[in-house]
Design a protein that fits this description.
Strand order of the largest sheet: 6-5-4-7-8-9
Helix content: 25-40%
Distance between the termini: 38 Å
Oligomer: single chain
Number of helices: 11
Structural class: alpha/beta
Number of strands: 12
Largest sheet: 6 strands, parallel
Strand content: 5-15%
Order of helices and strands: HEHEHEHHHEHEEHEHEEEEEHH
CATH superfamily of the domain at 123-314: Glycogen Phosphorylase B
Length: 315
Amino acid sequence: MFTPLLRKLKEEGYHVTVNTTDSGKKILRHNPHVDAWIIHVKDSVPNEKLGEHWDNMAKGFDKFINLSGSVEGNLLKIEGKKEFLWEHDVRHEKCNRNYYDEQFKIAGYPEVTGKNGELFFSPLEHRLAKSFAKKHRKRFKIMWSLAGSSFHKNYPYTEIVAKWLLDKYDDIIIITVGDSTSVLLEWQYPRTICRSDKWDIRKSLIMTQYVDLVVGTETGILNAAGCYDTAKVIFLSHSSEENLTKYWENTTALHVYEHVVSCYPCHQLHYSMESCPIHEKLKTPLCMVKLSGERVFKEIERQYQLWVSAKVKSG
C-alpha cells in the first residue's frame, strides 16, 4: 500500500531505503523508487525493543517514516487491545479512513490523497504473463483469490458460484490462486485452472493485469489488482469501501448489508473465532455467510456480459 509514497519520496529527491522482510522485498522487486534495502528478519527484535530499534535506525536518515501499525493497529484494531472492544460506532468514526491517504498523512504529506498502489515487473515476467493470456484470449478469464490471512477472508460459496458460472457459460475459465493452504479449497471441474501453491506470488500479482476479472476477499491479490484498471469484484469483511477500494478503478465492492450484519465494517483484526460472529452451521463469519451466492453470481455475470459486448463492438 505504501508504493505511491515511495514515488513521492523519489520525486522529492530522496535516496529511498526500505526496511522490510524478504517477502516484502520480493513483492517490491524492480520498483525504480527504491534505492536500498534493510532486510528485517522475523522475530529478530523483541516487540518491547522495537521502539529503541527504530529510534537507532532513524539516526542514519534525514527522513524516517515508520509505517508499522499504520493500518493494522491504527485503522484495524487488534484483538487483545482495549480499542478492539470499542463500540462499533466509535470504531467506525475513528477508523473509517482510507488506508493509502493515512500513510501519506503519517509520512508528513496530508495534502496527498487519491493514490493507488504500483507494482513493477521485468520484461520477462510481462512476456510470460502475456503468453498465458494469449493462450486463453477467446475466453473470459477470471482469477479467483481463494483465501486471505484471516478466517473472515474466506468466502464459503466460492465453489458453488464458480460452478454456476462454468455450467452456464462455456467461454469462461477460472484460475484459482493462493498459498499452500488454499489448495484445500480448490476443485476439479472443467475449465478450472488450479494454480494455488503453483504460481509464486509475483506470477499471481502480475496476472491481475492480464486477466479479465479478479475476484476475491481482502487479499494481497486484490490489492495488486487495485493497481490496474482490470475489472474487480471484492468481498469486504473488516474494511469499508472508504478504507480500501475508494480510489480503485473498475471495482465492485460487495459486502453484507449493515441492517443484516450490524458489525460490518468491524475495523478489527480477529485472531480467534470467539471474537467474531460466526454462522453456527458453516463455522464462517456472518459477514461472509450473509453475502449471498446469488449476489456474487449476478455481479460476475454482469462483468462477463460487459466483456461479451466489448468483443462484439470490436469485431
